[in-house]
Design goal:
Layout: H1 2-8, H2 13-23, H3 29-36, H4 39-72, E1 86-94, H5 100-112, E2 119-125, E3 141-147, H6 150-157, H7 160-173, E4 174-181
Helix pairs in contact: 1-2, 5-7
């Protein structure tokens, strides 16, 4: 009879059989608690407990990684030694400042200096950042050449490409030029 009542309530027969054993006992406070710990309730509880343990273990692993990174990574993030790059600016006053063809030839010649070993960068324009305040800023074209180190600057000074650029472009097109050290040496 108890089995029929459970089936009428919409419970399956398998669950009803398990529940029947408990319901045959007299209903005391202990039995009511046991009824709530049936298989249908116990399994999800176990899964939830397992997920709580998984979350705790994951959080523990994250905390351990954070602690290790805070201990070991500061050695990697130390500031590197200042770079020994050397920069030179060549300020040019053109013989024909209105001639865009002369200006274009000088720009091409300046960019060809990048082929010299040790030259990191060549910038050409009318504005040259980092010039000392006492420098005459009325120049027509400025070239900033950045070298890897002081030895690269010395190699540049004796380079055939530099002499060729000076002979073919600088002397015929430039009225006056000034070389300025931007790296503070």
């Amino acid at each position: 009879m108890a089995n029929e009542q459970l089936v009428r309530q919409g419970r399956s027969a398998a669950l009803a059989g398990r529940r029947l054993e408990i319901s045959e006992r007299p209903r005391t406070r202990e039995n009511v608690r046991q009824e709530s710990d049936l298989l249908e309730i116990r399994e999800p509880k176990r899964r939830m407990r397992g997920s709580e343990q998984n979350i705790c273990s994951r959080l523990g692993a994250i905390a351990a990684l954070t602690a290790c990174s805070s201990i070991f990574l500061p050695a990697c993030s130390t500031t590197p030694a200042p770079s020994p790059v050397v920069s030179r600016a060549v300020l040019m006053w053109l013989k024909h400042p209105e001639s865009s063809a002369d200006r274009a030839q000088l720009i091409r010649a300046a960019h060809s200096l990048r082929m010299i070993p040790g030259v990191l960068r060549v910038d050409v324009g009318r504005a040259v950042p980092g010039l000392p305040p006492e420098m005459d800023k009325s120049f027509d074209l400025g070239v900033v050449i950045t070298f890897r180190d002081h030895a690269a600057l010395e190699r540049y000074k004796s380079s055939r490409r530099r002499y060729e650029a000076m002979r073919r472009y600088l002397r015929p097109l430039v009225r006056r030029y000034v070389i300025c050290d931007l790296s503070g040496r």
